[in-house]
Write a structure and sequence with these properties.
- Keywords: Hydrolase, Metalloprotease, Protease, Signal, Zinc.
- Pfam families: CHB_HEX_C_1, Peptidase_M14.
- This is Peptidase M14 domain-containing protein.
- By secondary structure, this protein is α+β, with helices and mostly antiparallel strands.
- The protein has twelve helices and 40 strands.
- The chain folds into four domains: about 125-230, Immunoglobulin-like (Sandwich), CATH 2.60.40; about 240-285 and about 405-720, Aminopeptidase (3-Layer(aba) Sandwich); about 295-395; about 730-820, Immunoglobulin-like (Sandwich).
- Helices cover about 20% and strands about 25% of the residues.
- A hairpin with a 2-residue loop joins β4 and β5 (about 80-90).
- α5 (about 450-465) crosses α6 (about 470-475).
- It starts with about 20 loop residues before the first strand and ends with a strand.
Length: about 800
């Protein structure tokens, strides 16, 4: 069965009820990548900027801050009052952030999980006696997960109260756990209440424990109580493929720029023609190129911004501009061109004083430069009313590209539009097997996603003939690798400005088109898609061309995003997708965006798809953990708008809702527990390649997340071979009950249930069994009168329970009657 395509627009939405480095845009000319301070990220600037912790109230404020030119987009974490992160900013920029409502945290301030029991709820909460819960629960345990890492045990608990939105007084929750089966509850502590964009989300806690509990109890300050069993999170992970005898891995020796990535992809296709080939995407990128420019005359009303008509490397860099003061009076404004030398002959008034304004000089350059100048305009918001001064000597226009940055890989960067190759690996590349699309480096500064993806590709081809598990993967799947989906921006990150996020297409108007804003140009490719976009009113995609999350002038404006749509439409066997990013250590899916006013998300996946996502995530992350015990914690897994923030117009949303592709997003390089300090060490966009093998390093992240990609391929292979029909039950089942009864559905595997209660035959148009609330299990029906449930289930692979055909008049659907007697 194929999921129907869905195009989401704002008005079509149903009404729903509702640590790492972050960068501020540095000043022109500063290159934070050249920091030489020991142990500091390559992205940390030293020119008067410092790292400060900040707290934002939610995605709406995050969008405003990004629109103002601050780059606060990755490595964030949810805290009780919104979102917390780190910004590198100057004193003036810190003042600007405060004026916008951003809370700047002092040293030691900020949210930390409690490490010891605190005695429970404070008296101010006015806790009442615990009441027995009914179907109208006031407290629900969403999840209680136990995991270990580096010899330390942790318990993560997430709970929700129906009264959580109350703020006067704030509803509190107390958590207790036992020490194993048949032991009493104790170790009371207060859970943290999390709010995003003014909407209550849940209470949750993460804390260290020496002994694995079997149960937890959560008590609300308003009287509700709930208990829950503790599950294992990523425990007892199977051995990774890297531990198989003779298995080859660890092929990547350092970060790779796009030329190296693409060259190796083409080599692989030539070396292994029986299982690999190259597909060239049809839409060429803008290219690692831009117009040569100069701002002449300072930054005031007398300044003129000049941009060449030709790309810098095609002649724009050879242009010079001189503003010339001639002797005499009452002279007109004129322009002389000799070769690539432009001389602006400034006008003079009757008294012999210079009389040309910046606006007048700009107009003359555009009309009289014999085609050398494409754009000339006053500086930014200035009207250009100031009188232009003569230059002491000609000013050279330059694109400033190709100036190799310290530490960048060797090699010349080719200019001009780029054709992106896709490395396709599979024994049967004819559409019979499920396809898996791996898209790396949408964001230029994220270097580990590319190396992790290349490492996975190397493992497939190098082990195909010698390892049976690898042979199964290659024989049973069709894998498409885009090793760098943003080659222009990636080259700019390597060679010019390390914290470049976007591509190099400049859509800025004159007000933002001067050389001082070159590092802020480009489109955020992961905001340029069609579903739940900023153009539909969702948060997280900016209309400001200098914002780090600029969504472009329209949906699918960029060749890089057009290519993804072309690929999945041409190769319709692509059923899985992983968009690999860094850093933060999250694995997520839909919903990816929401409207901040009311926190109205894009449609959530059906409960069966959500369960399949969780099941797949457990498998993938177990293999990450198996390499060196790096744990992506449950709080960082789920719908991306729930675990991170709203990201309007992201690729995952488009591929899932439009094409039915199970589309994951991955922020690799998450926090690693350091047993020496007892803290979690955050990652960075470009960590040192070689470091402590137990902590953050580019090499370790590459190896462990390549493990996860290999497991994703196995998930897809299993999905493709899944012919097992799901089974489902109504619990406690049909029968006669005195008074009302609570019932729910259970399935044998992740599956979506379609049901009716009016006696009609269930179809794909019937109501779907839904979650109680986001990140929770299935709803409970409170049945107060005799009711017949008719239903069927469909698993993630499209298998229908009992072979029932919902499009025909079959009768082999499931039935159960709840008879209520007084």
């Amino acid at each position: 069965m194929r999921r129907r395509r869905l195009r989401i627009a704002l008005l079509a939405l149903p009404a729903l009820v509702a640590s790492s480095v972050l960068m501020a845009t540095p000043s022109a000319g500063a290159d934070p990548a050249d920091s030489t301070a020991a142990g500091r990220s390559l992205l940390e600037a030293t020119d008067g900027a410092t790292a400060v912790r900040v707290e934002l109230s939610g995605a709406d404020l995050l969008s405003k801050v990004n629109d103002a030119g601050f780059d606060i987009e990755h490595g964030l974490k949810r805290v009780p009052n919104g979102i917390e992160g780190e910004v590198i900013a100057t004193v003036d920029e810190i003042a600007q952030l405060k004026a916008m409502g951003v809370k700047v945290l002092a040293d030691g301030e900020g949210f930390e999980w409690p490490t010891v029991a605190d005695g429970g709820l404070a008296p101010a909460f006015g806790a009442r006696s615990v009441q027995t819960l009914t179907h109208e629960e006031t407290v629900r345990v969403v999840r209680a997960d136990w995991f270990t890492t580096k010899g330390q045990g942790f318990l993560y608990v997430e709970a929700r109260t129906t009264e959580g939105a109350q703020t006067t007084p704030i509803v509190g929750m107390q958590l207790e756990n036992n020490s194993g089966k048949d032991t009493p509850f104790g170790f009371a502590r207060t859970m943290s209440r999390f709010v995003d964009s003014g909407q209550y989300m849940f209470h949750r806690n993460l804390f260290k424990l020496d002994t694995r509990p079997s149960q937890i109890k959560v008590t609300s300050s308003t009287g509700g109580v709930a208990t829950g069993d503790v599950s294992d999170w990523l425990e007892n992970a199977p051995a990774p493929l890297t531990e198989r005898p003779g298995y080859q891995y660890d092929f990547i020796d350092g970060y790779k720029h796009p030329q190296q990535l693409y060259a190796r992809a083409e080599e692989i296709a030539k070396q292994y023609p029986d299982i690999a080939e190259i597909i060239y995407l049809p839409n060429k990128t803008n290219g690692y190129q831009r117009k040569a420019q100069a701002t002449i005359g300072g930054t005031g009303q007398s300044a003129v911004v000049v941009s060449s008509a030709a790309w810098g490397h095609e002649g724009g860099n050879d242009i010079t501009v001189a503003f010339v003061d001639r002797p005499g009076a009452s002279l007109p404004l004129g322009v002389e061109v000799t070769g690539k030398a432009i001389r602006v002959l400034l006008a003079k008034d009757a008294a012999g004083a210079l009389a040309s304004t910046a606006a007048q000089v700009s107009a003359a350059l555009e009309t009289q430069s014999q085609g050398l100048v494409d754009r000339a305009h006053p500086y930014r918001t200035n009207a250009g009313t100031g009188i232009v001064a003569a230059t002491a000597s000609p000013v050279a226009l330059t694109d400033t590209l190709g100036e190799k940055r310290v530490g960048a890989p060797e090699g010349e960067v080719p200019r001009g539009p780029k054709t992106i190759p896709v490395l396709r690996i599979g024994k049967h590349r004819d559409g019979r097997n499920p396809g898996v699309l791996i898209q790396a480096q949408d964001h230029a500064r994220e270097w580990v996603p590319a190396t992790a993806s290349l490492e996975a590709a190397e493992r497939l081809v190098r082990n195909y003939r010698t390892d049976q598990e690898t042979k199964k993967i290659v024989n049973d799947t069709d894998v498409f690798f885009i090793l760098s989906n943003n080659p222009d921006g990636a080259n700019y990150s390597f060679y010019n400005f390390a914290s470049q996020r976007k591509n190099m297409t400049n859509h800025c108007p004159d007000v933002d088109a001067d050389p001082g804003r070159r590092n802020s140009w480009g489109v955020d490719l992961n905001r340029n898609y069609r579903v739940g976009s900023g153009f539909d009113g969702y948060d997280g995609g900016s209309f400001s061309c200098t914002s780090g999350t600029y969504q472009g002038p329209e949906e699918l404006s960029e060749p890089e995003s057009k290519n993804i749509i072309w690929l999945v439409e041409k190769y319709t066997n692509i059923k899985f997708m992983m968009s690999v990013h860094s850093n933060g250590g999250q694995l997520f899916w839909q919903p990816g965006a929401y409207i901040a006013d009311g926190r109205i998300t894009t449609p959530r996946p059906p409960l069966g798809d959500e369960a399949f996502y969780w099941q797949s995530a457990g498998r993938i992350l177990s293999q990450v953990k198996a390499f060196r015990e790096t744990v992506v914690t449950p709080e960082n897994v789920g719908g991306s708008s729930d675990v991170l923030y709203s990201s309007a117009g992201n690729v995952r949303e488009d591929l899932y809702h439009t094409y039915g592709i199970f589309a994951f997003g991955w922020e690799v390089g998450g926090s690693v527990y350091n047993p020496a300090t007892g803290n979690w060490q955050g990652g960075s966009f470009q960590p040192e390649w070689v470091g402590d093998p137990h902590l953050v390093s580019g090499h370790s992240e590459t190896m462990e997340y390549a493990n996860g990609l290999m497991e994703m391929f196995r998930v897809a292979a299993d999905w493709g071979k899944d012919k097992q029909k799901p089974t489902s039950d109504l619990v406690p089942g049909g029968g006669t009950f005195t008074g009302s009864v609570d019932v729910r559905f259970e399935t044998s595997e992740p599956a979506t249930i379609y049901y009716t209660t009016d006696g009609s035959r269930p179809t794909l148009e019937s109501p779907r069994y839904e979650a109680t609330e986001f990140r929770e299990g299935g709803q409970v029906f409170h049945v107060t009168e005799t009711t017949t449930f008719n239903w069927f289930s469909v698993d993630a692979a499209g298998n229908v329970e009992k072979g029932y055909d919902p499009d025909k008049n079959g009768k082999n659907y499931r039935k159960a009657t709840i008879t209520i007697v007084d």
